Amino acid sequence: MNPKVDNYLIDGCMRCDFGATPRCKVHRWRAELDTLRQLVLASGLTEEIKWGVPVYTHNGKNVVTVSALRESCMIGFFKGVLMSDPHNILQQQANIQQSRVIFFTSMEDVMKVEDLLPSYIREAIAVEESGAKFEYVKNPEPVPDELLQAFEDDPVFERAFYALTPGRQRGYIIHISSSPKTQTRLERIEKSKQPIFNGVGLNDKYKSRGR
Known about the structure:
Blueprint: H1 3-11, H2 25-28, H3 30-41, E1 46-50, E2 53-58, E3 61-68, E4 73-77, E5 100-104, H4 107-113, H5 117-130, H6 145-153, H7 155-162, H8 166-177, H9 182-197, H10 204-209
Antiparallel strand pairs: 1-2, 2-3, 3-4, 4-5
Helix pairs in contact: 6-7, 8-9
């Protein structure tokens, strides 16, 4: 076990506005998260903290994540779209193309699939070992390559982005894409991260001024 994950379960997510306080979303799902953690650890995956959440890797490659959301907790499979899902329990989260997740809102939810998860985790490892790649399909409003790479580097950021309304997503995409320079696009992505994590649109501050 990784002591940083112990801290995640005890103190909460430090990317949360309420990290290290009783109001952090992690505390609501501590029992469910711990059960999911034990199931993943039994597979032999390496436990790490990345992007402020537990991530489980195989030969340095991300395979599974376990984390808390406001209204649920989840187990996610980084290449879930390539998995067979024989029991039809994997879900797409918003417009995220590659990963697939299972959401839980109680221990009863976890117990319903507890016996199925080991085989899903084994398949996720097998998919990673196979070297299979997923080809992203670009949206009608093309997502800039720099932003796709940021999603690849930080799936938590990707989830936060696709939790925004379509209009807010489009606003950021247009803002980032409007510069022809890669460095400027990267800088705009970095400046946009915290507002996106906060669920704020690029133009929200201007809308509030007009009220």
